[in-house]
Amino acid sequence: MRKETQKLIVLSLLGLVSVNLAAQQTAKKDTIKNIDEVVVTALGIKRQDKSLGYVAETIKSEEILKTQNNNWSQALEGKVAGLKIQTAGAGPLGSSLIKLRGDISMNMDQNNALIVVDGVPLSNSTTGTGFSAYGAGAKADLPIDYGNGINSINPDDIETITILKGSTAAALYGSRGAGGAVMITTKSGKTKKGKIQVTLNSYSSYDTVLKWPDYQYEYGQGTMQKNTSGNYFYSYGASADGVSTGGTSSAFGPKFAGQYYFQYDPTLEGQSAERQLWRPYKDNIKGFWQTGTTFSNNIAVETSNENTSFRSSLTYLKNEWMMPNTGFDRFNAALSFDHKISERLKVGVKFNYNKTKSDNLPATGYSNQSISYFMIFQNPNVDLSWYQPIWKKDKYQVDQIHPFSSYIDNPYMIAYEMLNGVDKNFITGNVNLNYKIAKNFDVMFRSGMELTNEERTQQRPWSSANYLQGMYREQHIKQMDLNNDLLFTYKNTFKDFDFSASAGGNIRYSEYTMYDYMADGLLKPGVYTLPNGIANITKFATPSDKQVNSAYGLVTLGYQNKIFLDLTARNDWSSTLPKDNRSYFYPSAGMSFILSEIFKLNSNQFNYWKLRASWSKVGNDTNPYKLIKYYNNSVFSGSVEAPSLYPNPDLRPEMLTNIEAGMDFSIIKNRISYSITAYQNNSKDQIVDIPALYETGYSKRTINAGEVRNRGLEMTLNTFPVKNKNFSWSVNANWSMNRNKILSLPDEFQGQPYTLASVGGVVYYNAVVGGSLGDMYGYGLMYSPDGQVVYGTDGLTAKPTEMKKIGNAYPKWRAGLQNEFRYKNFTVSFSFDGQYKGMAYSQSHHKMTEQGKLEHTLIGRDNPNGLIIGEGVVQNPDGSYSPNTKGVAVSVYYADYYRRANVETNSFDTSFIKLRDARISYSFPKSVTEQLKLTDLSLALFGRNLWMWTKFPLFDPEAATLNDNQITPGVEMGQLPTARTVGIQLNVKF
């Protein structure tokens, strides 16, 4: 290796010089990359990419800041093969889970990638409200997306993100890295000659709804009732025209044809004195939503020299979301300091503070007090303005205006009175010391922390459907996560061999407490305090503490910079496992062969060829308090509740075995590079909860059982079709597929399915041997041998007695495509991504179809006598089949065919293509910046989710449900709209 190249890599390891900048300075004009890329791997160890036996993809800060997401992780969507950002579509904070290479565990909470910030793992945990997404008609509340740890990381402070896929890449993180790891390195200050550099990044963005359901505005409220003259009619309350039809939520009433009926009069708060024009209000759902706005300003100061680097950053973001009176304020402060105290000792400090505050975040789910519920039940003939006063005359804070049903809360009361506040303080940071013991021997100590202090409030006014006398609730959440690492490293070169060995240990300790207070009913309406409660319910804090001690080692051997071998070993001792099984050991091995060096294939046309392979085993523990019997705090002071979980004192750790192999090559002076990876993960001895016999006094018990296998393929292509002095065009593409198979289940099920999760009591995620995680089960249609739908003699669909597999929540494959064009000082970039197949059940589609709110329910309304004959067959007494000829009322047909329990007819293909982001920017030339005494000045227009193709009928095919604190894919249960965003960004350096 050339000396200047070695020097550049050393400088990059010290964090003083950008590798990309160095590459550009030493590269030939027509060559894209000329030195080995350095990437951040497990424990924050920096390695040459060529030496790795696994895939490590790096995303630069420029990609994260291109389109300025409220949640930085969503900028990764479609950029990395095998990566999926799972959100619940539940509001502006957009809690996200990052999944790599599919699900490996039957425990849905154990399938996410580990987030690591500057070498310190982030818990990324969430605390829910304790309520499910389906709560209509019950005295229950709703899930609220308060954000998770990912939200708290400021994108302006991110320098690089390295994706370590699979357990081999994250082997040194143990059980927390079983699903791969996302390594975030924050900025640390890099300037020339010790100069102070100030950077200002400011942007404004505007959100509108990306996609609406196909609402129908041809027919109004009603259930196909006729008057004494035999004509369809409408009447709000009984009138001369007939009985009241204004209490239904259905839109199977008369067609809008210029007729006049007695309708609701907002002035009288009742029936109009005269007949009013029967007309639709086509903006009575969309008109409730507004243009959302986000304003963000970041200022950063940094400087560095050969001994010291320093950076500080302040960011303030203000968001007003698309739903009125919702949004949040976020303040971030970051500090980074690295100093070389002596030739032997270096010290580094990282500190990040986040404060997120909101007076109101939207609730999600299918329940009376969600805005989603109102949108489902709103009728075409109802003017949105009728609801705006909120309160009836002389009944302020006592009785709301909801004239059509006591179950449908006023949308403006939901927005302005049913408030969900949060005040969250989140701190992460670490201190690291690096001491050179000898020439080739050093030691690193790092202590990192994560602290959360969060206060939440929820208020519900009098007359709300679920709380007739109101409600007020407070949640106080405290969480602490401490990580301490000690790592010894020895490096040396022996003739043709490069040798590196590291050994160390980690102690991780976490604490969590949550105090929950509720005033169930308010003595005085509109006064939201705990002392004003009719009945006060207190849930005392239940501790959730955990400690894991670890010892680990890493050996890396390189031969002539052509062949590399990695060996790792780790042993964990977890407090959540019994004494005899508390210790578990797991190793990994990886090799890479630089074939272009071995066979001397280097040329201008063929630049690089690498083969890689790796194998690993990773252990996994479980949640606290599953070993012995623990009593829970009761809502009654001084009492406890018996546990519902039967403990298992003999639990063993889960074990995941990963094998992967791949190839990387580049040609034509690195203008075309290609990567392909195949992998297999087997997870066995899974820790699962299964139902217990009721006579035991428990509802479930924890056991070790089951094996799941994932197989997949990933491909990445990077090209520069054109690159010259004034113009360049780069194309990046990726494609990935994952196949999941359940190899075994607990013997206790004796061939019966194991239900991993369910949503709304209709969709069940059942595990069946030979099936896949993500398989969705529910009731569906019955079919004749030739595939026709079977109907009963009543003209309605035949009802099955057993559930069947409807589909799978996960797609067959995903792909992404990015293009970037540079012409002189202009840059234009855009990114598409999409998926093929996958399935999602839609509760909103069921209910709006049942009520005749969607365009597809117009079919058959003009039929004679309003009857529709279902297309299919009827089974005859002798077992044969004949065509169905029985007509039923249109409203009855749609209510039955798309009934809530019919998961099949309410589930849809989630294939899609999205124009995920686009950007056009202009960098002002030096002739301008020098006059302004600036280092750099750029202006950009950007957009996110600008266009989408899909056959999914609701807001977004990337549907998932926030169920308490769990994001469950494949179910739309009161989903909130997805935003289309456009914005403008100004970046200044001086």
UniProtKB/TrEMBL annotation:
Residues 1-22 form the signal peptide. Residues 56-181 form the TonB-dependent receptor plug domain. Residues 406-817 form the TonB-dependent receptor-like beta-barrel domain. It comes from Chryseobacterium populi. Belongs to the TonB-dependent receptor family. It comes from the Bacteria. InterPro entries: Beta-barrel_TonB, Beta-barrel_TonB_sf, Plug_dom, Plug_dom_sf, TonB-dep_OMP_SusC/RagA, TonB-dep_OMP_SusC/RagA_CS, TonB-dep_rcpt-like. GO terms for biological process: siderophore transmembrane transport. NCBIfam families: OMP_RagA_SusC, SusC_RagA_signa. It is a multi-pass membrane protein. It is found in: Cell outer membrane. Pfam families: Plug, TonB_dep_Rec_b-barrel. Keywords: Cell outer membrane, Membrane, Receptor, Signal, TonB box, Transmembrane, Transmembrane beta strand, Transport. GO terms for molecular function: siderophore uptake transmembrane transporter activity. GO terms for cellular component: cell outer membrane. PANTHER family: HEMOGLOBIN AND HEMOGLOBIN-HAPTOGLOBIN-BINDING PROTEIN 1-RELATED, TONB-DEPENDENT OUTER MEMBRANE RECEPTOR. This is TonB-linked outer membrane protein, SusC/RagA family. Gene3D superfamilies: TonB-dependent receptor, beta-barrel domain (2.40.170.20), TonB-dependent receptor, plug domain (2.170.130.10). Its main location: membrane.
